[in-house]
Design brief:
CATH architecture: Beta Barrel
Order of helices and strands: HEEEEEEEEEE
Largest sheet: 8 strands, antiparallel, barrel
InterPro entries: Beta-barrel_OMP_2
Keywords: Signal
Helix content: 10-25%
Pfam family, one: OMP_b-brl_2
CATH class: Mainly Beta
Number of strands: 10
Strand order of the largest sheet: 1-2-3-4-5-6-7-10
Structural class: mainly beta
Number of domains: 1
Radius of gyration: 22 Å
CATH topology: Porin
Protein name: PorT family protein
Number of helices: 1
Shape: elongated
Strand content: over 45%
Distance between the termini: 39 Å
């Protein structure tokens, strides 16, 4: 019985230490990389469009400042966003590829102990376009022209898993601003799913 009490005492001490550590201000910094999947909003509200999801790349830096169970996580990464889009009733395609510097400003919380924890994040994202390529097919019909803006806005929702210095994140990025399609007043929005793996270089 004494061994059980001793084991329980040690376990509670470790858990309490981990909880107290989460309440103290911390700072972490690292690198991240991964893939995304881009899609367009095909609702008739924005014009009758259809499209195919295509994969892109993400790579950059992240930081995390936390205390009292909450954290602020700004990031800066380079990303490519690829999508194939077409107007209904035509076979003409536009294989659009955009690259940008993205700046998410996330607020989140973390639960866990012993170096393993789950995170939940949300917040706004500002995207600064670097390159905008569009390749139109030679099929009959007018291909959709996406007039992607130099500065775009989105909102991210996501969850992550921390295992020691490695983190895994899965997020949904909801496009906020409407992108003209070059077809009258029709507009669309670009949304993304992204999956990244991050490595913590140092933390305090």
């Amino acid at each position: 019985m004494r061994k059980i009490y001793l084991f329980a005492t040690i376990l509670l001490t470790i858990i309490c230490g981990q909880v107290n550590a989460q309440l103290l201000p911390t700072f972490q910094f690292g690198v991240k990389g991964g893939v995304n999947l881009t899609s367009i909003n095909t609702s008739s509200t924005f014009g009758n469009l259809s499209g195919d999801n295509r994969a892109g790349f993400i790579g950059g830096l992240w930081a995390r400042v936390g205390g009292a169970g909450l954290h602020f996580q700004p990031e800066l990464y380079y990303t490519t966003k690829n999508v194939t889009v077409r107007a209904d009733n035509t076979s003409a395609e536009n294989k659009a590829s955009f690259s940008s510097l993205d700046l998410p400003l996330l607020i989140g919380t973390r639960v866990g102990a012993l170096g393993v924890g789950a995170r939940f994040n949300t917040g706004p994202l500002v995207s600064f376009a670097i390159n905008k390529d569009q390749n139109y097919s030679s099929a009959f019909g007018n291909a959709v022209n996406l007039r992607y803006k130099d500065q775009n806005y989105a909102w991210q929702f996501g969850a992550g898993l921390d295992i020691k210095q490695i983190s895994f994140d899965l997020r949904y990025e909801l496009g906020l601003n409407k992108i003209p399609t070059g077809d009258g007043d029709a507009k669309t929005k670009i949304n993304l799913f992204n999956f990244t793996v991050a490595y913590r270089l140092f933390g305090l």
